[in-house]
């Protein structure tokens, strides 16, 4: 019986993959997880098994992504044993209003996803590359898509609408929200870990190269900080976050920027990189300790804290704050600084627990639970694929 799913998660800063046994109930079980990395010699493929041992460590010569995906597929087929690789599941950032749940990737579905590229010009092509590669390499292997925007389809119309003429909303200009696979995993993890607490007013802060926050009520999204695009909300590695639209008009009219130049500025040259004039990697900014680097970190903290307060407003209060994502999971200094700015809401971090990166890091007298939970988007992709195949 074919019951193994290969998940591919192509993001803006990395490509991750995972191999999972599709269980009949609950989460699939992880067999191995890995990452595609660029190296001087070509494309390096690194994966570890469920026990942390090396499952794959090879370099594919050259820069041909199809060669890398061919090797990953062969590795997955070998590890799964002949005939047991059931499907490849993919993360797709934008599903628009058409894809509000996972979908099988037929030719028609792929065309519809590609048509959404203007809504996510940076991410949509990245998500479709492995889809096309797998289709060319294994045309008979089933493929599925899990959409980041789908989790936020529960947001009420008044929270998803911009104060623009309604005809523009009918043309697709509205809040969509992103990082949905991460929030999906966290929502289910919270219910598993603390059953019966779904009504707890929870804000999840997904802090990585991309940054967004989500207000959860009964495990569903009621608001989020990213909107029409992944440029909105908090400061990110190379993206500016929320910006006065007048700045765009000024750059166009007074500074002679072309739309292409503005796109490059907002996606690749702003955020931590733009303010620090050094790097979009917060680890590098901590090491540099220049005035510009310190200001970039301070701006990042201020904006994240502000967005927590905005999400708490949508919930009518705050009972639980969850940190996840590469920065949220691995930078205790950022967690502490964000919570200090939110002390007026009753947040208090235990420094010893925070530095130890245990699951719960608040003090006994904190009025808000503060958690650190490692997200797992690949297992959500595998779960969605298994459900689609079973249905």
Walk me through what this model shows.
It is a single chain. This protein is α/β, with parallel strands linked by helices and 391 residues long. The protein folds into two domains: 4-147, ATPase, nucleotide binding domain (Nucleotidyltransferase, domain 5, 2-Layer Sandwich); 194-372, Nucleotidyltransferase, domain 5. Helices cover 39% and strands 21% of the residues. The protein is built from 15 helices and 13 strands. It has helices at 65-80, 107-114, 124-137, 157-160, 166-170, 180-193, 245-253, 259-268, 271-276, 282-288, 291-315, 325-330, 332-341, 351-356, 377-390, and strands at residues 4-10, 15-21, 29-39, 42-49, 54-61, 85-92, 103-104, 142-147, 202-207, 211-217, 220-224, 320-324, 369-372. The model has no long low-confidence stretch (mean pLDDT 95).
Distance between the termini: 16 Å
Tell me the count of domains.
2
Q: Give the CATH architecture of the largest domain.
A: 2-Layer Sandwich
The CATH class name of the largest domain reads Alpha Beta
Counting DSSP H or I runs of 4 or more residues, the number of helices is 15
Can you write the helix and strand succession as a string? Answer: EEEEEHEEHHEHHHEEEHHHHHEHHHEH
Give the number of DSSP strands: 13
The CATH superfamily name of the largest domain is ATPase, nucleotide binding domain
Shape assignment? globular
Cofactor: Mg(2+); Mn(2+)
Keywords: ATP-binding, Cytoplasm, Kinase, Magnesium, Metal-binding, Nucleotide-binding, Transferase
Binding site for substrate: 91
GO molecular function: acetate kinase activity; ATP binding; magnesium ion binding
């Amino acid at each position: 019986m074919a019951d193994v799913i290969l998940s591919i998660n192509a993001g803006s800063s990395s490509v991750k993959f995972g191999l999972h046994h599709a269980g009949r109930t609950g989460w699939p079980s992880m067999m191995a997880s890995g990452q595609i990395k660029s190296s001087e010699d070509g494309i390096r493929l690194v994966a570890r098994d469920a026990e942390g041992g090396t499952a794959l460590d090879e370099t594919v010569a050259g820069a041909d992504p199809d060669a890398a995906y061919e090797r990953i597929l062969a590795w997955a087929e070998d590890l799964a044993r002949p005939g047991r690789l059931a499907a490849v599941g993919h993360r797709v950032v934008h599903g628009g209003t058409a894809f509000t749940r996972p979908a099988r990737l037929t030719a028609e579905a792929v065309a519809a996803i590609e048509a959404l590229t203007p809504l996510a010009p940076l991410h949509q092509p990245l998500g479709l590359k492995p889809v096309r590669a797998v289709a060319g390499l294994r045309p008979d292997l089933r493929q599925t898509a899990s959409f980041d925007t789908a989790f936020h389809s529960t947001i009420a119309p008044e929270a998803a609408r911009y104060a623009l003429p309604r005809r523009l909303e009918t043309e697709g200009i509205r809040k969509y929200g992103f990082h949905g696979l991460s929030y999906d995993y966290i929502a289910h993890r919270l219910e598993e870990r603390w059953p019966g607490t779904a009504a707890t007013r929870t804000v999840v802060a997904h802090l990585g190269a991309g940054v967004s926050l989500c207000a959860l009520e009964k495990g569903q999204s009621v608001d989020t900080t990213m909107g029409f695009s992944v440029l909105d909300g908090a400061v990110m590695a190379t993206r500016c976050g929320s910006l006065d639209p007048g700045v765009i008009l000024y750059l166009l009219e007074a500074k002679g920027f072309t739309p292409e130049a503005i796109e490059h500025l907002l996606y690749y040259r702003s955020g931590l990189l733009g303010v620090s004039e050094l790097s979009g990697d917060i680890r590098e900014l901590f090491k540099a300790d220049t005035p510009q680097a310190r200001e970039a970190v301070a701006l990042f903290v201020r904006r994240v804290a502000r967005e927590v307060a905005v999400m708490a407003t949508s919930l009518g209060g705050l009972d639980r704050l969850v940190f996840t994502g590469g920065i949220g999971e691995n930078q205790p200094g950022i967690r502490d600084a964000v919570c200090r700015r939110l002390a007026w809401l009753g947040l208090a971090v235990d420094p010893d627990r925070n530095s130890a990166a245990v699951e719960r890091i608040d003090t006994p007298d904190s009025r808000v639970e503060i958690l650190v939970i490692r997200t797992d988007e690949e297992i959500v992709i595998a779960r969605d694929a298994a459900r689609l195949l079973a249905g």
